[in-house]
Amino acid sequence: MAYIIAFANQKGGVAKTTSVVSLAGALAQQGTKVLAVDLDAQADLTLSFGVNPDQIVGTIADVLLNNRSINHYIRETSIPNLDILPANADIELAERFLPVRQNYETVLRDAIESSSVGMYPVIFLDCPPYLGAVTLNALTAAEMLVIPTQPEYFSAHALRNMMAIVRRVRNQHNPGLIYRVLITMQDRRNRIHRNLSEQIQAAFGEGLLRTVIEVDTKLRESSIAGTPINFYMTKSRGTLQYTALAQELSQYAQKAFAQPA
Q1: CATH code, domain with 100
Q2: Residue (of 201, 228, 54) closest to 124 by Cα position
Q3: Rounded distance between C-alpha atoms, residue 106 and residue 174, angstroms
Q4: Which residues contact 250 (CB under 8 A, 6 or more apart)?
Q5: Which stretches within 79-190 are classed as H helix?
Q6: pLDDT confidence band for 123 (50 / 70 / 90)
Q7: How many domains does the chain fold into?
Q8: Maximum pairwise Cα distance, the chain
Q9: Alpha helices (H) in the chain, listed in sequence order
Q10: pTM, whole model, 2 decimals?
């Protein structure tokens, strides 16, 4: 059984896709087979693994709109143990037309349950930067929501809306959904960053992941190179921190699996 982790935030530019790529790379390097699912029309996750979204025939949009099997569209990446279910601009059609279907919130969950993706211990869902039908599908399908946020005012403010959608999903579709806030792109020399990080810690307590991702230009370079940071620069700050985050999430997932049904 796969452990499904969605990455979402209404605020863009918070290293959401970077976190998915880097975590997937760290887990794959440790020998865990990972499936990364791109749910964003910008297809940044797809591009990050060197796949041109304009040349793809068959994406996650076909799964959401046409009830196609996930297994038909999974692609191998150049990284061993790491596969991707790509996206392109067609996902915008899913955002538009999903809500006209009955029980549209469970389309992705049903597709995952009816597929043979159990070979992947971990599935990452990279959501678009808005709280629409596709993000709602991701949260309905996930065991955990990770909310990346910069320690800056507008990013921290967006957490209110994220908490609202968590409550909605728990009440209507996925009562077992848990969340964890991930602080990203932190500059420890910046007083505002330090102050807001302390406020986020006070507000969320155990809902905050222990690992903090700091600013690292190598993360941006690795995205351009189309490879996870741990394969691009093995000793960089980003590599060490995302490796630590992968270990933290793995421990949590193992604890969840160990609980009796």
Answers
A1: 3.40.50.300
A2: 228
A3: 10
A4: 27, 32
A5: 91-97, 107-113, 133-141, 153-157, 159-172
A6: very high
A7: 1
A8: 50
A9: 16-29, 44-48, 60-66, 91-97, 107-113, 133-141, 153-157, 159-172, 191-204, 217-225, 229-232, 237-258
A10: 0.94
